[in-house]
Amino acid sequence: MIFRILEEQYGAKLAAEKAAKEGVKTLAPAAAAADLRYMQLALTLGRRGLGRTGTNPAVGAVLVKDSVIIGRGWTQDGGRPHAEVEALRRAGEAARGATLYVTLEPCAHHGRSPPCADAVIAAGVTRVVSAIEDPNPLVGGQGHARLRDAGIAVEVGLCADEAARDHAGHLLRVREQRPHVVLKLAVSADDQIAAAGRKPVAITGEAARARVHLLRAQSDAILVGINTVLADDPELTCRLPGMAAQSPIRVVLDRSLRIPSDSKLVQSARQTPLWLMASEIAEAASAMRLGAAGAEVIHVADCADAPGLDLPAVLRKLSEKGVTRLLVEGGARTARAIVAGRLADEIWLLRGPAPISEGGIAALDDLPLAAITAAPEWRERSNERVGDDMLTIYDRI
Predict the structure, then answer these.
(1) Structural domain count of the chain
(2) Is 84 a catalytic residue?
(3) What does UniProt list as catalytic (predicted)?
């Protein structure tokens, strides 16, 4: 124990000496711990906006003065007001001389509202701790630069990995013109997702289903294949108490527009948006019928070397329409295509305790589940029990 304490103290001393030589500002342990605590709070606040802020990132912000939190904010529904403005509004005049903790660089351009960087400057904030720089070319370091030019101390990088995960949808939409894709799989003890004949069967318990519904609420859109619709007739809404309004846009891969007019999805299309991704040569009469029912038909190209729609083109189209966080819930063929095409960024694997009888449907069609669980491109982030089920989350390396 004594050796470990001495080793930590010596390591800290070396780090401080190295920082001093390189001109890097270091904080006392207590101050560093406080910074971490406030940034963690900002991240937690920002997550309140996931799935609710449109094309704007779900940012969190905390204002602190004399070790007291004087203002908190997160990006509001629809993307306005921004987190920084909301925190400043709550702090009022007390913001002068405060430190702002924010999970993404304050914007520096005029959009539907003035730049957040200007609001921070005008409020008299003297220090800004920012998790990551915004890759949006309209911002891209300009917000931090504007703050520094105004004499504000700016520090970037605290909790950068967590912030990048929370803002993954925004970052990918800007950099790659596609949403962040989360694939959710609920599999039996023997790696199946349905009984023989694609008959639906309850695999996970109530606690796991509640967790999935929360994930739906934090997503901009949820995607399934037409075979899932024909077999299950799902609603794909968020059914947590009081959260129906946070249901995501429902997206169906329906190349030939086979979805029945009396399906739950079509019947509820005027209450919760329904987008049908169809081939460019899908029948116009079917598109008109479904459009009249409230669904939106979106035409995309067919895949050049395999049957079905071009999935990268589907993702680009969804990104163009403002989707930053996409949840894919299957079925087996859609999940297989997502995994084989290396299109998922994150996988939630829920495993129930019971097997499905012989003849059931494999989770990834003809692809073994080891393509996820034993593949070098996937890294296990967490593993936890949810009720009687196990949830393992994988990140793409």
Answers:
(1) 2
(2) yes
(3) 84
